[in-house]
Design a protein that fits this description.
four-stranded mixed β-sheet, about 400 residues, alpha+beta, 11 strands, flat
Length: about 400
């Protein structure tokens, strides 16, 4: 019996993603000056206002107002009619120093445990599946790609000239009972747009036509053939289903760091421990251990020992080693499962320090993670997305 599964994405101009990108840009700027900076910063954006808050311990200095404005400008909020733009919005900073009580648990040689411990307690999950070439769930991957291409169309200013930065997407896929994608059932795209000098009906008809005529073919052309075949004439399209979407971005909805954690990870195809990523330096296992779990899960699936893999790592604040490692290969093979857990313990140092050294995380590499997902991306020469490498598959070869 078939079933349906849906994932969503949001664009770089979505208010929550604006906040995420500002928080990670601040982190990058602190790390660029002091790789040992301890950062946990949050951002709020609303009509005409950006508020920066959080805790920082660093030897560097960052002009946080300028950083925030540059991010807003790069996203595309540059017109006064948006009611939130890079030059005129207020920027308030309430960033202060990191708590000494927390610091003693995450700095080597301090606190009760002399080895550097985790910055907080929690459970972090990593996931990988072979249904896409980048080992990501298909519905989420397509949701991201729709908005990446929509943003490219907006910047090119060629075929579609009325697009504004805020948008959302959602993709529903029908799967067979043996978990193979059969077809795309529905695509939802809501995009902010300029105020047309036309009736709402005419405007919405044009947007729908342009999305199907220009956007969809761009996305399909960049997909592997077996995924292209899922784009049939039977897809139901919901384009701006609520109607007019002129008021958007932080003017239409307040944005906060860390409110799109399912978009950031696996689109609901795997559990989430609850901790957000953006604005946190890599001593925070909410971020670094989630990257490590993805790294291991992806290498497991890339080794072809399993079609998909879920990993949970659990930590206690101030304690260096994981309290537990859980692996699910979705095939009920307990011997294989034990083999994988043993290989993880033998080959991966999952202490906060071990993760940072393994993935080289003390670098200014985080702003680009804050839109269109932290996983499934291509590793860069500067060290970003190092957790997407598949250089450890030999550890899991029997």
């Amino acid at each position: 019996m078939s079933y349906f599964f849906t994932s969503e994405s949001v664009s770089e101009g979505h208010p929550d993603k604006v906040a995420d990108q500002i928080s990670d840009a601040l982190l990058d700027n602190f790390l660029a000056q002091d790789p040992n900076s301890k950062v946990a910063c949050e951002t709020l954006v609303t009509t005409g206002l950006t508020v920066l808050s959080g805790e920082v311990k660093t030897n560097g200095y960052v002009d946080v107002q300028n950083v925030a404005r540059e991010v807003i400008r790069k996203i595309g909020y540059v017109k006064s009619e948006y009611q939130f733009d890079a030059d005129s919005c207020g920027v308030i900073s309430a960033i202060h120093e990191q708590s000494a009580d927390i610091r003693q648990g995450v700095v080597e040689g301090e606190g009760l445990n002399k080895e550097q411990g985790a910055g907080d307690q929690g459970m972090m999950f990593g996931y990988a599946t072979d249904e896409t070439e980048n080992y990501m769930p298909l519905a989420l991957e397509l949701s991201h790609q729709l908005l990446i291409e929509l943003a490219a169309l907006r910047r090119e200013n060629n075929d579609i000239t009325y697009l504004r930065p805020d948008s959302k997407s959602q993709v529903t896929i029908e799967y067979s009972d043996d978990n193979v994608p059969q077809r795309i059932d529905a695509i939802v795209i809501s995009t902010q747009h300029d105020d047309f000098d036309k009736s709402d009906a005419v405007m919405l008809a044009k947007i729908k036509k342009d999305i199907i005529q220009f956007l969809i073919p761009r996305v399909v052309a960049k997909l592997p053939n077996h995924i292209q075949e899922l784009f049939t004439d039977d897809i139901t399209y919901h384009i701006n289903p609520t109607g007019v979407f002129v008021i958007g971005g932080p003017h239409g909805d307040t944005g906060l760091t860390g409110r799109k954690i399912i978009v950031d990870t696996y689109g609901g195809a795997a559990p989430h421990g609850g901790g957000a990523f953006s604005g946190k330096d890599p001593t925070k296992v909410d971020r670094s251990a989630a990257y490590a779990a993805r790294y291991i899960a992806k290498n497991i699936v890339a080794s072809k020992i399993a079609d998909k893999c879920l990993i949970q790592l659990a930590y206690a604040i101030g304690v260096s080693k994981p309290l537990s490692i859980y692996v699910d290969l979705f095939d009920n093979d307990l011997d294989k499962n034990k083999f994988v857990v043993d290989r993880i313990n033998e080959n991966f140092d999952l202490s906060p320090r071990g993760i940072r050294e393994m993935l080289n995380l003390n670098k200014p590499i985080y702003e680009k993670t804050a839109a269109y997902g932290h996983f499934g991306r291509t590793p860069d020469d500067n060290g970003s997305f190092s957790w997407e490498k598949t250089d450890k598959t030999s550890h899991f070869s029997k």
